[in-house]
């Protein structure tokens, strides 16, 4: 762990193993949460609830940081497992997950993207909040704790605060009235109260409460501790068809080497969802991201997905775009603050461009050449870059992509 990560684990342990971890994306919240839970082996098993798109990634990280018996729950619970990973929907639907085998309650709980429980009126929040509140050690992870203001914080703070302080939290409607701004919306039939933002007169109270449990660091604050460039594997959940295809392509590796063919099908939807969750959940987020792909049909599907994300103004540059238009689109990405996604072709844009306005790259698929990827990474990893660079490689577990990534890491 890096020093700032060790600091967060210590901060949480001082609070009985409870923390609201709001570090910016790319700073290793997963590693910090798992290291925290590793300090309490007598209180295992550990429950991890996360979005479907990152389940496999969580399983890989558990093996890396804890190396314990882990199970990703899809249907039923294996009583021998020490780490249980499941989605929010599976947790809500499966009553057997409300408590660990042979135990009255879960004592160690991690919620990834905890802002998904921000609305206490939803079935998801109603099912999970009591379980988390009763736990002894809790880590809530999200880089966007309050996308729409103080109203998003009530349920999350209710879960992460020490048990003795939970009863002193105001009721939800009292919280709204004191810490939010009410905007009335007339539907034509009735008026709806929409509680949003922060009440300027009481925001310092919210900030003070947050400080008791929150750790939030930005990349700019810990830049001296970060490597200049970090590569991350973004493991995707494979549909049965994609998993079968992965096995078949890997087995035919030698035959495929002479063809311009890689495994890309079924990866676009989780890639789009990942970009949405990490870059567009918070209305105040201004970070830009570059998404590279190799095949035109993959670019087409990604572009269609990004068009459905609110606020995800996107440029696309591939071989079909004339030179003058390429320059115009690249310039827009670099200068227009509202243009935050650059969808680029590996063959067209992996060389020559300086795009340090972004510090994050997502490779939605991989090519046969590690050199291509290294050159594409250098679109943001340049002398003029002022931020640490995070490079994400999307792939299916045990696929051809994972083999190619190992080759890249060996370079």
CATH architecture of the largest domain: 3-Layer(aba) Sandwich
Regions with pLDDT < 50 over 5+ consecutive residues?
Answer: 256-263
Task: Work out the strand percent.
Answer: 15-25%
Number of strands: 15
CATH superfamily of the largest domain: Tandem AAA-ATPase domain
Mean pLDDT metric:
86
As for the number of domains, it is 2
Sheet/helix structural class: alpha/beta
Rg over CA atoms: 22 Å
Shape: globular
Count of helix runs: 17
The side-by-side strand order for the widest beta sheet comes to: 3-4-2-5-6-1-9
- Biggest sheet overview: 7 strands, parallel
- CATH class membership of the largest domain: Alpha Beta
Write a compact overview of the structure shown.
By secondary structure, this protein is an alpha/beta fold. It is built from 17 helices and 15 strands.
Q: What's the layout of helices and strands?
A:
Elements: H1 3-14, E1 18-21, H2 29-38, E2 46-49, H3 55-65, E3 70-72, E4 83-86, H4 88-93, E5 108-112, H5 123-134, E6 137-141, H6 154-160, H7 163-166, H8 172-179, E7 181-186, E8 191-196, H9 203-211, E9 214-215, E10 229-235, H10 240-251, H11 253-256, H12 268-279, E11 289-293, H13 296-306, E12 313-317, H14 323-335, E13 339-345, H15 346-349, E14 360-363, H16 370-377, E15 389-395, H17 400-410
